Amino acid sequence: MFGFGDMIEILKKNPKRIVFTEGSDARILEAASRLLASNFLTPILVGSVEQVEKAAEESGYNIRGAQIIDPLHYDRIDEMVELFCELRKSKGVTEEQARGILSQANYFGTMLVKMGVADALLGGATYSTADTVRPALQLIKTKPGYNIVSSCFILVRPAATGENEVLAMADCAINIRPTEDELVEIAGVTSECAKIFGIDPKLAFLSYSTLGSGKGEDVEKMRNAAQKTRLKYPGLPVEGELQFDAAVSPRVARTKCPDSPVAGHANVFIFPDINAGNIGYKIAQRLGNFDAYGPILLGLNAPINDLSRGCNALEVYSMAIITAALA
Ligand SMILES: CC(C)(COP(=O)(O)OP(=O)(O)OC[C@H]1O[C@@H](n2cnc3c(N)ncnc32)[C@H](O)[C@@H]1OP(=O)(O)O)[C@@H](O)C(=O)NCCC(=O)NCCS
């Protein structure tokens, strides 16, 4: 079950502050006004106070109670610059360069999380994924014990049973061409995330081939990654390489791989690269009527997430709750 209400309950017990890097965007303002009407997640809006207030007034959203922080007039900017230079000292960043970089909302917002001013960050309403994620990769880094930051989408649609059908797909947004070992890490973190959303994970490593029916480098990569995942996470149901039909259709699975306990019933899909993953989740969303939540960043040392630039205010609100609850 997709436990959205559960996430709100978690936040009610432990309220958080979330920074929005695009403080004057109408969709952000609408989501912020909705969050302010409850008291489990406080928005921090990055931008010029005048511009944010004017945008809120023009779009008719009440953002009274929101903290607005202007990167150009921040009382802790010297401390932030010093910390930034320390974090990027291996790159030889000068104080002057740091001041320039921190005048940009994506870097400034990420530093607010790093400094503990905010618990979480949501950006990307106007910034590209790369521009939202890069500051996090550079400043927040991976959690101890993790080698990469990756991402997954959680896809939800009502099922005929009356319950929701919930799936996970990865990595559709960050790693362009993951290696075998990176796919193993992606599989592990995606399974953990899937469990949070009530999925009992059954993993399919997707390909254009099912258990040796096709040949090629990419086929071998997916087969080897599946095998390595099995060894690393004994007990986690994993199959691969699988074609998508064999992964989800019990009828096709009976023909193509009758002995597999995963084939025909997979609910966590590991894609060979970002092309396949990004196209795949959007097909599910646009033609399969799934709501898509994500990309949810995994392996990052703080809860920071990216919005699609085509997002609406409801998606901003939902992703804000997911991001903060995962904190
Ligand atoms: C994520 C992404 C932005 C990083 O690319 P980049 O900025 O060119 O990255 P670089 O190789 O210059 O690395 C920047 C920093 O991030 C780190 N990094 C890059 N990828 C990383 C990853 N997957 N996990 C952890 N750290 C990573 C690098 O080590 C580097 O750290 P450093 O500056 O401290 O040395 C890039 O992989 C990308 O564009 N991915 C696709 C995004 C996209 O368009 N998605 C589709 C829409 S949803």
How are the secondary structure elements laid out?
Blueprint: H1 4-13, E1 16-20, H2 26-37, E2 41-46, H3 49-59, E3 67-69, H4 77-87, H5 95-102, H6 105-114, E4 120-123, H7 129-139, E5 150-158, E6 164-170, H8 180-196, E7 203-206, H9 217-232, E8 238-242, H10 244-248, H11 250-256, E9 268-270, H12 274-287, E10 291-298, E11 304-306, H13 313-326
Parallel strand pairs: 1-2, 1-4, 2-3, 4-11, 6-9, 7-8, 7-9
Antiparallel strand pairs: 5-6, 5-10
Helix pairs in contact: 1-13, 2-13, 4-5, 6-7, 8-9
The chain binds coenzyme A.
Give structural notes.
With 327 residues, the protein is an alpha/beta fold. The protein folds into two domains: 4-141 and 301-326, Rossmann fold (3-Layer(aba) Sandwich), CATH 3.40.50; 150-291, Rossmann fold (3-Layer(aba) Sandwich). Helix 2 (26-37) packs across helix 13 (313-326). It starts with a helix and ends with a helix. It contains 13 helices and eleven strands. The strands form two sheets. The chain has a six-stranded mixed beta sheet, with helices on both faces. Strands 3-2-1-4-11 form a five-stranded parallel beta sheet, sandwiched between helices. The mean pLDDT is 95. 46% of the residues are buried. The chain is globular, with a radius of gyration of 21 Å. It has helices spanning 4-13, 26-37, 49-59, 77-87, 95-102, 105-114, 129-139, 180-196, 217-232, 244-248, 250-256, 274-287, 313-326; strands spanning 16-20, 41-46, 67-69, 120-123, 150-158, 164-170, 203-206, 238-242, 268-270, 291-298, 304-306. Coenzyme A binds next to helix 7 and helix 12. The site of coenzyme A has 16 residues, from helix 7 and helix 12.
